[in-house]
């Protein structure tokens, strides 16, 4: 068994993965509340795996009510080192077509009704999210997707909106033409920020389901069309995930990008001024620096 443990957060349409040896759904208690669901654990080859359906099996949580902090805390508590987020997304680019995957590397966060940090009064910390995704993990996702025969685009900016409604036409045009975004979804923020706070490597794979509403030939977003594309995308995602263990270094070495040391100089609150209650809740997320 290796030091690496891959955590996959599955988005809309992806509620399980196949082929895990010793597969078992385990309930993980978190001081940040209940995660979206139990977590499917097992091994692929000699790599430990954990799978968490972001919206829960049966699609219970809306993008706003997904318990993002509990999810990241629970994955870290289980021993996950690398988080791969898989999400359904709309596309702002003609060449990023439904069925394609995009390895997202930047975000614009327009969400406003979610808890966005593990830190706060009594334990203040500021991490950098200038480069919010891990290039090493992105390489593995890109190569796994190519091996699975998926059309994959490397790099892209993801507009994270609050939802649950889709964008207006004016918003869609602004995100595409003025802000230069490539894809749109409702769930990668604050997930990516929280993964960085928890010192976890994070990569985001956007599975394109639609052209949002800007495209003159496709009209407005239609959830029935999204669901039809989602089913095929979910099979592709399972294929991609099954190839990941072979592509990540078996023994855990420090992340070249520094994801696993994000808290090194981030904490500002003096030890004697820290809130013991909050410190206790941070045992998994920030245990390395407490
Ligand atoms: C199914 S359409 C809207 C839904 O799809 C995306 O979900 P996820 O990121 O979990 O795959 C989007 O963010 C919305 O939650
Ligand atoms: N067009 C879109 N906007 C927001 N979230 C989405 N998820 C899938 N397609 C989407």
Automatic annotation (TrEMBL):
GO terms for cellular component: cytosol. Phosphate binds at residues 12, 54-55, 87-88, 187. InterPro entries: MTAP, Nucleoside_phosphorylase_d, Nucleoside_phosphorylase_sf. Substrate binds at residues 186, 210-212. Pathway: Amino-acid biosynthesis; L-methionine biosynthesis via salvage pathway; S-methyl-5-thio-alpha-D-ribose 1-phosphate from S-methyl-5'-thioadenosine (phosphorylase route): step 1/1. The record marks 167, 223 as: Important for substrate specificity. It is an enzyme of class 2 (transferase). Its EC number is 2.4.2.28. Pfam families: PNP_UDP_1. Signal peptide: none annotated. One of its GO terms (molecular function) is S-methyl-5-thioadenosine phosphorylase activity. The keyword Cytoplasm does not apply. It catalyses: S-methyl-5'-thioadenosine + phosphate = 5-(methylsulfanyl)-alpha-D-ribose 1-phosphate + adenine. Keywords: Glycosyltransferase, Purine salvage, Transferase. Residues 6-242 form the Nucleoside phosphorylase domain. GO terms for biological process: L-methionine salvage from methylthioadenosine; purine ribonucleoside salvage. Gene3D superfamilies: Nucleoside phosphorylase domain. HAMAP family: MTAP (MF_01963). Catalyzes the reversible phosphorylation of S-methyl-5'-thioadenosine (MTA) to adenine and 5-methylthioribose-1-phosphate. Involved in the breakdown of MTA, a major by-product of polyamine biosynthesis. Responsible for the first step in the methionine salvage pathway after MTA has been generated from S-adenosylmethionine. Has broad substrate specificity with 6-aminopurine nucleosides as preferred substrates. Belongs to the PNP/MTAP phosphorylase family. MTAP subfamily. Homohexamer. Dimer of a homotrimer. PANTHER family: S-METHYL-5'-THIOADENOSINE PHOSPHORYLASE (PTHR42679:SF2). This is S-methyl-5'-thioadenosine phosphorylase. The gene is mtnP.
């Amino acid at each position: 068994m290796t030091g690496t443990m891959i955590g996959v957060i599955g988005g809309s349409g992806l509620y399980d993965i196949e082929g895990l040896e010793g597969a078992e759904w385990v309930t993980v208690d978190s001081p940040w509340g209940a995660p979206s669901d139990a977590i499917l654990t097992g091994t692929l080859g000699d790599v430990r795996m954990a799978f968490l359906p972001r919206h829960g099996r049966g699609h219970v949580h809306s993008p706003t009510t997904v318990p993002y902090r509990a999810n990241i805390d629970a994955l870290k508590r289980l021993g996950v080192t690398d988080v791969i987020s898989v999400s359904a997304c709309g596309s702002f680019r003609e060449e990023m077509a439904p069925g394609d995957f995009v390895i997202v590397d930047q975000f614009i966060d327009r969400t406003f009704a979610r808890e966005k940090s593990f830190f706060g009064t009594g334990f203040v910390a500021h991490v950098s999210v200038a480069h919010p995704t891990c290039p090493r993990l992105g390489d593995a996702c890109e190569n796994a997707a190519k091996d699975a025969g998926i059309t994959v685009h490397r790099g892209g900016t993801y507009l994270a909106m609050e939802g649950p409604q889709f964008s207006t036409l004016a918003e869609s045009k602004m995100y595409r033409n003025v802000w230069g975004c490539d894809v749109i979804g409702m769930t990668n923020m604050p997930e990516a920020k929280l993964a960085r706070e928890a010192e976890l490597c994070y990569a985001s794979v956007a599975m394109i389901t639609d052209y949002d509403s800007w495209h003159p030939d496709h009209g407005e977003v239609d959830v029935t069309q999204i669901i039809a594309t989602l089913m095929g995308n979910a099979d592709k995602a399972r294929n991609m995930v099954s190839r990941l263990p072979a592509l990540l270094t078996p023994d855990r070495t420090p992340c070249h990008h520094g994801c696993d040391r994000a808290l090194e100089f981030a904490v500002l609150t003096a030890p004697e001024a820290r809130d013991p209650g909050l410190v206790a809740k941070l045992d998994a997320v920030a245990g390395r620096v407490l």
